[in-house]
Model the fold of this input.
Amino acid sequence: MTFLTYMRPDRFTIALLATAATASILPASGAAAPVLKVIISCSIALLFFLQGARLSREAIVKGAIHWRLHLAVFAATFILFPVLGLLLSVSLESVLAPGIALGVLYLCLLPSTIQSSITFTSLAQGNVAAAVCSASASNMLGVFLTPLLMSSVMNTEGAISLSSIGSVVGQILVPFIAGHLARPWIRTWVEQRRRLTVTVDRGAILFVVYYAFGEAMTNGLWYQLRPRDLIVLVILSCVLLALVVVIMTAASRLFGFSRQDEIAIVFCGSKKSLGSGVPIASILFPASMIGAVILPLMLFHQIQLIVCAVLARSYASRTVLINPVNE
Done:
């Protein structure tokens, strides 16, 4: 498989771009806007209900014993990334269009992904059980920590209120817990309909993106956004991801983690969740800001998939060379 194959965006990324383009031309307006907001709230609640139902308690128990690994992932996700985000957002405020620098900071405060972290850890032949536990814990903690961190670093008029944090708990955490508590009764039904759950996940994100970019168009984001902003964001995303990967790889080796644990740390600690980031942004920020805030996340999402796919193949090939008997 060639590098150009990895560079090709997946179907969901194409759908995201198409949705953003459609919303920029035909934004929701008039009576349709409040109806869309209700649909978004319901779809987000359903998304996290199904995520809670899919989360295996056995996988959490199996991976929970690797506390040093989880601590390393937590440090990367909620300490290293935020520090880098603060430095970058301050230096870029005068360079990027309004709201984009805030989006860079928001990106850095988000939890790790679940599905792709586990998938890439598996492809690279790393510690999958620990990755399941670490990525799942990151997502659950992110529901609390992302709004709290965002609130603590914002001193401007757009500061996040306690009511916004309460909305996150009500629309995300409560459905998630309800879904997990209902798992004994609905687990089989949910597992037999994985395509349905994927559709709900992606559909909720597409609804938010459509609403956000429609509002961005109405509030003139695209007139303020310059081609230079996109170029800077792409370069910034590549540099940010490279820094975290290099730092976490070096730290894993310095602290004596095994190769399998290093793989889990690198993949769980270097990625940010589009699935959690977009819904949380829709609750935390005014509608007029959401488009600018999630734009860096959308770009980073695609770049992290490309880079991690290449990195996973590299790890896997080196593992085969180290352990040829396993072939």
Summary: The CA atoms of residues 112 and 272 lie 5 Å apart.
